[in-house]
Amino acid sequence: MRVTICENKQDLGLQAARLGIEAIRSAIEKRGEAIIVLATGVSQFILYEQLVASSIPWDKVEAFHLAEYVGIGKTHQASMRAYLQNRFLDKVGSLRAFHPIEGDAEDLGCELKRLNDLIRNKKVDVVFLGIGENGHVAFNDPPANIDTTEPFILVNLEEKNRRQQVRANWFPTLESVPLQAVSMSIRQILKASTIICTVPDQRKARAVAMCMFDQVSVFAPCAMLRTKEECTLLLDRPSSMLIFGDRR
């Protein structure tokens, strides 16, 4: 894992976009296609502004996304599908394919099978990622299942994560935040050729320290990223304060 400290959130987003565009273009040049996994959240805003402004031939790109809440529809303000539709899909034209996670499917077992069958044998080129305040990646909250090899799994959402969603104004109250989500598993994320992980803000400083220094365990899911050589962790000064202090 490589660590890059950016001066501010704007620079952080630009660096993530530059790395992502390079990786997508490289995959298209080599194989005629690229398969990517999309993240959501405030940390990704600038990234998507840059991606949609690029000249990537999106008709050669197939996309999955990391997670979706169970039981909320695609028009809900907190829906990951709505986020991606508004900030990415509507602006890039036609992707070769986009595979949404239907968190409100009547049969979640069938939905998991559909997603897993779609991605299981594909070579994923790029995963765009963030880290939650509790150290989650995708929605793999501690204690996370770090051993499963299933690509997508049903997960329980920890209260700290659910409170984060309220503070970010995705939901009005803790009670309105779903208790479960469908999430890409950690081992599936690590299978990608390139991971670009964007983590701004002081509120993420403890999670960054967890990623860098905690023992890899179910209680520190983000620490699994240290096992991935082709992973770039992009931080701003506030989010890196516990790992570098004033020595930067």
Give a structural overview.
It contains eight helices and ten strands. The protein has one domain (2-234): Rossmann fold (3-Layer(aba) Sandwich). α1 (9-31) packs across α2 and α2 runs parallel beside α3 (80-92). The mean pLDDT is 95. It is globular, with a radius of gyration of 17 Å. It is of the alpha/beta class and 248 residues long. Helix content is 34%, strand content 19%.
What is the residue-mean pLDDT, rounded to a whole number? 95
**Major beta sheet summary:** 7 strands, parallel
Annotation, overall tally of beta strands: 10
What is the element string, with H for helices and E for strands?
EHEHEEHEHEEHEHEHEH
Helix content: 25-40%
From the 3D coordinates, which CATH architecture would you assign? 3-Layer(aba) Sandwich
Our Rg estimate from Cα atoms comes to 17 Å
How many domains?
A: 1
Q: Quickly count the helices.
A: 8
Write a short abstract of this structure.
This protein has one domain (2-234): Rossmann fold (3-Layer(aba) Sandwich). It is built from eight helices and ten strands.
Name some characteristics of this structure:
248 residues, alpha/beta, Rossmann fold, seven-stranded parallel sheet, 8 helices, globular
Provide the fold topology.
Layout: E1 2-6, H1 9-31, E2 34-38, H2 45-53, E3 61-65, E4 67-69, H3 80-92, E5 97-99, H4 108-119, E6 126-129, E7 152-156, H5 159-167, E8 180-184, H6 186-190, E9 194-199, H7 205-213, E10 231-236, H8 241-244
Parallel strand pairs: 1-10, 2-3, 2-6, 3-5, 6-9, 9-10
Antiparallel strand pairs: 4-8, 7-8
Helix pairs in contact: 1-2, 2-3
